[in-house]
Design a protein that fits this description.
Layout (H helix, E strand, L loop, with lengths): L1 E5 L6 H11 L3 E5 L2 H7 L6 E4 L6 H8 L6 E3 L8 H11 L4 E5 L6 H16 L4 E4 L3 E6 L2 E5 L7 E6 L3 E8 L5 E7 L14 E5 L5 E6 L5
Length: about 220
Amino acid sequence: MKTLMISGGSLDEKFALNFIAEMRPDYILGIDRGLNFCYQHEILPSYIMGDFDSIDSRVMEYYMNNPGIPVERFQPEKDATDTQIGIEKAIELKSTGIWILGATGGRMDHFWGNVQCLALAHQAGIPAVIVDPQNYITLLGKETMLEKSRQFGTYVSFFPLGDAVEGLTLEGFKYPLTDHYLKNSDGLGVSNEIAEDTAIVKYRQGMLLMMMSKDREA
């Protein structure tokens, strides 16, 4: 079951609508200010959730008056971010994959909090991706094959989500690595490129964050 979260960060209208059409999610979670986008494009979420402190009043009234959409409302002063609450709901729904739109742009503390939330899905064994027109961000399992024909953008970067990743090996890349200890202060993982038809990423310990990126179109 594929779950799409529409959050309240920056949303490129054309990219988001094309992504939703191609993905055809089983569940759509409208997360706080992401509901404004849903309303503008007549998207009916499967669930809506958040503290709703940044929602247009007309939008909130419209969805609150729709009895077919469960609403989970939280106080603004809470111990979890809206994105964390959304990922926990996606896990509860037994999702097989989670994709998040509107998790980038704006405040960097919000963005980094969203990235850290990917660990919740990763620890539950569910792939989760933050995506926007320039970036595809996810945590990888211990061994992953990447196909050059299906990569998102030109550049592939790797970062530890935590202190370090042990035993990082990159095969089929422009800049290969063998059994490397990648520290969180190490810039060696930035802006690599897939050089072969397929590339392999392996590591022994830690959590490995991958960012596939492309330059902004002129």
